[in-house]
Design goal:
The chain is an alpha/beta fold. Strands 1-2-6-5-3-4-7 form a 7-stranded mixed beta sheet, with helices on both faces. Strands 9-8-10-11-12 form a 5-stranded mixed beta sheet, sandwiched between helices. A 5-stranded antiparallel beta sheet has the order 17-21-20-19-18, covered by helices on one side. Helix 10 links the parallel strand 13 and strand 14. Helix 1 packs parallel to helix 2, helix 1 packs across helix 4 and helix 9 crosses helix 12.
Length: about 450
Amino acid sequence: MAELIISVSGLRGIVGENLTPEIAARFVAAFVDLLPAGPIVVGRDGRSHGPLLAGGVQQAITRAGRECLYADVASTPTIGVLVRDLHAAGGVQISASHNPPQYNGLKLFGADGRVISAGEGARVIEGFRRTTTDGPTSGAATGKVTSLADTTTAHLHKVLATVDVEAIRRRKFRVVLDANHGAGAVLGKPLLEALGCTTTVLGGAADGRFEHPPEPTAENLTSVAEAVRRAAADVGFCQDPDADRLALFDEQARYIGEEYTPALCADHVLARAAGAVVTNCSTSRMTQDVAAKYKLPFSRSAVGEANVCDEMIAQNAVFGGEGNGGVIDPRVGYVRDSFAGMALMLDLLAARSEPLSRVAASLPRYEIVKTKMTLDADRWRAGPAALRKHFADAAASTLDGLRLDWPDKWLLVRASNTEPIVRAIAEAPTAAEAQRLCDEAQHVLARL
């Protein structure tokens, strides 16, 4: 049996194998124990076993004497907005993000509508591991479940307020939206309608019957390319099941990808508002180059959405993101948000009156290579020093694993928290150079 994947932001597992309603209830009970007074928002991403797990989550909340505000199918960023808009004590999103269909999971939000911090997550894990199935989820329910009649209006208005709606409407964009039977079309379709787009929706029914593997990568999205071509679309938007990530196709039905999403949105935001920009340390340096173009501050965080948001708040940043297509616009909320990304992209295209292919080509071009190797924790302890010695001409940072920077390329080497593997990610002007950096890193580590 595969092990349950537990992290500081939540958990994921295979439903019916290592993830059950009882386990979900135990985990949420440990979370609720740490929250201030108030109701708790709960949503799910459209997977078929979402209602089963929602029953366990609701049970944990009501047995703690709390009110559960049930949003049913809703995107992850929408849950963040609802927590703030309804003055809730926290939130739970039932989602396994981009994992295969047999998986599901839980993502936890604090009262500020953000994914909880690493410190808070560690306390939840500690409480979860102290309990058994006879623990805090037993007893009669004294709270109640309230179904939310309107889950999208607040989020929709926040997104529309960030862009020139009339300018976008005048362009009458043709758009393909691939929600892939996740939660994305619940808000994605009305958002694009409000922006005057002629929209072809793929996988709009939120039933978890994915038409392609759920991670929005090039190899998984060949059917979307065909749809963009058939619709003669100006842009194709591809979401993961909980709609916090956004990948792009241009008007030529070419996959632009996820790394371009935060870089292009940052370019548009910084053209209009001066301020700092934050990405994590595994994101393409395109966004750093955009900040440099505007002579504005740029900083990196450790990998993880909560870490990016912490750094954004510390720097009073006007924009942040992650290279997995995660756009974080603080005007909407400190959560990765595909809807904010779609609106910003359409606003950019309306402002520049250029096709997406030409806008994307204006950014510096880099290639990213990602590799991994088996290496146990004992051997990895000597790894950072060995890598720094081997790559002595690079600037080194230990913010998250070891990152090595040169003027036009970088290498990040990080050990997994859940598996005996080490990941090496490199970015350079050519794929060959990025691959060389990864290969050299693996060669150094193999000699330990």
